[in-house]
Design a protein that fits this description.
By secondary structure, this protein is an alpha+beta fold. It is 60% helix and 8% strand. It has helices at 2-22, 53-56, 68-78, 80-99, 135-205, 211-245, 264-271, 282-303, 340-405, 410-445; strands spanning 106-112, 125-133, 254-256, 309-317, 323-331, 461-463. A 4-stranded antiparallel sheet has the order 1-2-4-5. The longest helix is centred in the middle third of the chain and has 71 residues, at 135-205.
């Protein structure tokens, strides 16, 4: 009797110790009460942590104007949404770990104490059992493979999100620099028209010119001011987007270099990668990993059709002091269910993933080819715009000279100057569109299409809040129109 009691107590204590050792601890983690903004000086700048080779080799100097590649690298390093996505990857790692764990054995114990007139009862009885579920061992290999493929899928999805974050930062960079260059043209014209308006008003006050001339200047000035105001709103929106990507407070000023230089040879290299997109694009590889995970999940469902086996070892003693050792086997018979419903669901899910991958593959190829065609069209358009610019510049100067001689009217000279401004704005817009489409092509093909940052134009301007004008003044390219020498009273 004492021996059985000691064995039972020993096994019970051993089991409790094992349970306590396997339990995880708990520690509270309170939520933040204030917005945890990142200061510019605290931005992560070690690009070696980036999985993208083109950005990992990008030097970042916060004290110098930031190139487009540097801005993209900073976004990948500091975007809080990416950090949240990386945290979610821990869930997939935990799932992969859980899939590889073996099922816990089951221990059972019972004690029988004789009461009253027990007859032949001479001792206290007990019954100890230790059971193992062997059914999960059949599907364990497929479950582990599915979990590992899912973990790879999550990692690739995060990598694709990094690609998209870099592309979003590049798009904001291009938009901000493009607005700066556009406003430089508009600002120079604005200053010229404002100066002309002052002179024409002075001339109208002395009766030298009709008031209609100054009124025409005012209309043109207001149109330019409206364009600059629209650009200022676009500037604020884009700067806010870029600050958010860098985890900076809204309105934080940034010093940006110029637009990256387009490399036609690199575009041709990107076109040559279209047949290898499934081996390059993280989103396509993530879909492949997801499909592989589903294949293993389906295989697990098929394996689950086999009878589930359980084994139990027992040690017992009855109240008559008869000791026994035995074992038992439990077997589930797949007659009514047989996992057929689960298999049907998994097969339908696999077909869905197959169709989604085929659709994404077609869309990826079509989008890349569309961008290549658009880039080629923009290149031809740029050549035409550049070819027409010298003639328009010469015509504007000739018309201005003819206006001074009285051989041209003021509306004719203003129309010619507007045509030159429109051409220069169209050329600047073309450069911005070409950069935007090229950056999109980089995202779709994973191939850089810009010249190295060291060879880019490094003119910089600080982009900040509306209290700092988002454009700079540059001298007008053609002489300011005038029909009279400037009046000293102006």
């Amino acid at each position: 009797m004492r021996t059985g009691t000691k064995v039972l107590r020993g096994l019970t204590g051993l089991g409790l110790c094992g349970l306590l050792a396997a339990c995880a601890g708990y520690a509270p983690k309170p939520l933040p009460t204030q917005v945890p903004w990142t200061r510019p000086a605290d931005l992560r700048v070690d690009a070696r942590d980036i999985a993208l080779p083109a950005l990992a080799a990008q030097p970042i100097d916060l004290n110098a104007p930031l190139t487009m590649q540097a801005v993209a690298a900073l976004a990948v390093l500091n975007d809080p949404r990416l950090q949240a996505a990386r945290d979610r990857a821990g869930v997939a790692k935990a799932q992969a770990f859980a899939a590889g764990l073996l099922p816990d054995p089951q221990f059972s114990g019972a004690r029988e104490i004789p009461l009253g007139n027990s007859g032949d009862a001479t001792t206290t009885g007990y019954n100890l059992g230790l059971g193992f579920d062997l059914g999960r061992l059949i599907t364990r290999g497929a479950a582990v493979s599915a979990a590992k493929a899912h973990l790879r899928q999550v990692d690739l999805q995060i990598l694709w999100q990094e690609w998209q974050t870099a592309a979003a930062a590049e798009a904001d960079y291009i938009a901000l620099v493009g607005l700066r260059e556009r406003d430089a043209l508009l600002g120079a014209e604005h200053d010229a028209v404002l100066e002309r308006l002052r002179r024409d008003r002075a001339a109208a006050a002395t009766g030298i010119e009709p008031r209609a001339t100054a009124d025409a200047d005012l209309v043109q000035l207001q149109a330019l001011q409206q364009k600059l105001a629209d650009d200022a709103r676009q500037h604020e929106a884009r700067l806010a987007e870029l600050d958010a990507l860098l985890d900076l407070p809204p309105g934080t000023p940034l010093r940006l270099a110029g637009l990256p230089r387009f490399d036609p040879d690199a575009v041709q290299g990107a076109a040559a990668t279209l047949d290898r997109l499934p081996m390059i694009r993280p989103d396509l590889m993530a879909l492949q990993a997801g499909y592989q995970s589903q294949e293993e999940t389906l295989r697990k469902a098929v394996l689950a059709q086999f009878p589930s086996v359980g084994v139990e070892l027992s040690r017992a003693r009855d109240t008559s002091d008869i000791n026994t050792v035995g074992f038992g086997v439990t077997l589930s018979l797949p007659i009514l269910n047989g996992s057929r419903g689960t298999i049907a669901v998994q097969e339908a899910t696999r077909q869905t993933l197959y169709d989604e991958y085929a659709l994404r593959l077609r869309q990826s190829r079509a989008d890349a080819e569309r961008l290549l065609a658009d880039i080629a069209l923009l290149q031809r358009q740029r050549e035409a715009l550049q070819a027409a610019l010298p003639a328009l510049r010469a015509a504007a100067r000739a018309t201005d000279a003819a206006l001074r001689e009285g051989d041209a009217t003021l509306p004719q000279a203003q129309a010619q100057r507007q045509a030159l401004l429109d051409q220069r704005l169209a050329l600047q817009a073309n450069a911005r569109q070409l950069a935007e489409q090229s950056a999109a092509l980089q995202l779709l093909t994973g191939r850089g299409v810009f010249a190295p940052a060291a060879h880019q134009h490094t003119h910089a301007k600080t982009l900040s809040s509306p209290s700092h004008p988002p454009f700079e003044r540059i001298p007008a390219e053609i002489p300011m129109l005038s029909v009279r020498p400037r009046d000293p009273s102006a």
